[in-house]
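Run log, item B.
One chain of 66 residues. Sequence copied directly from the ordering sheet:
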Amino acid sequence: MENPKDQTPWLGLLMIQGDYHGFGFGSLGYKHLETELVNRGANRILLGVIKENKKAHEFWRSLGFN
């Protein structure tokens, strides 16, 4: 629920099998996680994304992250 260094939940990896990319499963899975974290009192969620992973950056931006 929270990283001991910053008291914030972090998401470091979201993997969807390649055959299922583009069907909305990643967005749906993240939205369920977000709802659960908010229900438990989280007011922000931090991500760990590999700098060079442009597709991942695009995905997370589409969900409102910057």
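Observations after the first pass:
- The longest strand covers residues 10-11.
- The chain is about 35% helix and 5% strand.
Flagged for discussion on Thursday.
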